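Thread amino acids onto this structure.
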């Protein structure tokens, strides 16, 4: 596991500011990056990615919290985190994040904001005169 702090420039956009109910999945990259994992480890990895998507980060330093997210004992959480932890980077704020997922979120937010701006412009052009 890497304990190198990530710069604040790599921080995700605020989860509360930009909720995303749908998380894109890069299937080929996921399969390639998890081909060596057992089913229980893949399941843990997916749950932790979903937790990060919903909450912005994973509490990798707190195995009791990881266990609660994964619905397993602290001992099993320790085992699972030892397998998937390297897929996450410890940030300077002591949280853990998957950098690929942060990039995916930023791209999704930027795309959504562009689409919203286009829609506002379209509606503005077609608005009835007052």
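Threaded sequence (130 positions):
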């Amino acid at each position: 596991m890497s304990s190198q702090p990530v710069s604040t420039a790599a921080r995700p956009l605020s989860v509360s500011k930009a909720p995303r109910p749908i998380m894109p999945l890069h299937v080929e990259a996921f399969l390639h990056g998890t081909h060596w994992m057992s089913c229980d480890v893949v399941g843990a990895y997916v749950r932790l990615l979903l937790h990060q998507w919903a909450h912005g980060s994973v509490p990798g330093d707190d195995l009791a919290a990881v266990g609660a997210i994964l619905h397993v004992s602290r001992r099993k959480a320790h085992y699972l985190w030892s397998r998937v932890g390297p897929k996450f980077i410890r940030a300077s704020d002591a949280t853990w994040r998957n950098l690929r997922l942060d990039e995916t979120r930023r791209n999704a937010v930027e795309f959504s904001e562009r689409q919203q701006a286009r829609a506002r412009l379209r509606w503005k052009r077609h608005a009835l005169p007052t």
